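Try it yourself: sequence plus pyridoxal-5'-phosphate, in.
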Amino acid sequence: MKANRSEALFAEASQHLVGGVNSAVRAFRSVGGTPVFMRRGEGAWIEDVNGKQYVDYVLSYGPLAIGHAHPDVVQAISETAASGTSFGAPTELETDMAKMVKSIMPGIERIRMVNSGTEACMSAVRLARGYTGRDRILKFRGNYHGHVDALLVEAGSGVLTLGIPGSPGVPASVTETTLTAPFNNIDAVREVFATYGDSIAAVLVEPVTGNMNCIPGLPDFLQGLRDLCDDSGALLVFDEVMSGFRASLAGAQGLYGITPDLTCLGKVIGGGLPVGALGGRADVMDELAPTGPVYQAGTLSGNPLAMASGLATLRHLAQPDVHAQAQQWTTQLLTGLSERAAAANVGLVTHQAGTMFGLFFTDAQQVLGFEDVADCNAERFVRFFHGMLEAGVYLAPSAFEAGFVSTAHDQAALSHTLEAAERVFADL
Ligand SMILES: *Cc1c(COP(=O)(O)O)cnc(C)c1O
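Structure, out:
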């Protein structure tokens, strides 16, 4: 048997990197086996260190909305790098990026670029607290907002729970102002507001979730959040780090027609380079330093390479029909998977929001929140994951991660995927 280079590389990496990886989600802890080491990507395809090719539905966990190594992105990064990689002084690219995002998401009046989604969410919380003069924040079970102390909370068993630290190293004093409620349950949120309404600074929500797999918020739930925030003076923060430029070109706010006070962005906005952004109402955003008293800064924020990469990605994505075509491939993918699962008698619920999708192995009729996802057939997912990997289809190694389609996916990629799925479903 040919030696598997990934195994050798992982063994070596594990002696130097914690768990052999630089982000916990990359380890194959929930599916077993060895993480596959990749060496190149082009369009919808990636190649591992053994030379095996895969259709990629991870796309770096979302950022690569126009596929791997898109010529526009490669050119933008190379040309920008040749003129210097960072100045610590303003560049025109940052204004270009701000204008681009505002033209796509009209609810955003002012932007601050940061370096990751985590930073965007962390700054959103501080800004909301500074602006409202209130301390409490409300988040939803199964929603992820980066590894921010106050947002790493575990829910208790009740409908409404006070935050319990979700990780060692997070003091209870940091999470005691974090309230949690179940996703897609507006009655539970009304109860929270009845008790705590006048002390809540912000409601943070993934309007389309990507971190308990892909669950679109119910329109009444999201509109209900908007109304409760308007009535109580709390700020509505859409964490669109994943759904931005995916649920629709204008993200979930475009899809639902609901304008949040603040929006957290990341992933696609950097086109594969490390970027995050916080944007929203001018009167709120202007509370940030230097115009306001809420401190926020970053040595590499608005980095020229990251702006160039993100701008090239957004420019390509915003062309007429480009996003719609990728959404169309996503629909075809899910239709094809559903048909093949049904033919093999495999219970499968699929979700789509633009170019994001979710696959749930369950006989339930619907999947609306964290408990529903946790009830899905985990063993079946593991077999499906490994079967697809073997057949040259790369999915995230966790039943709690969403899938992504890029503008580079095409009929060939789809056919390869559906043929593989047909064989794998038959053995589930
Ligand atoms: C990925 C993600 C984050 C964190 O972004 P990082 O760039 O990994 O720090 C925050 N919120 C959501 C919804 C995400 O999907």
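One thing you can check immediately is this: The two ends are 26 Å apart (CA to CA).
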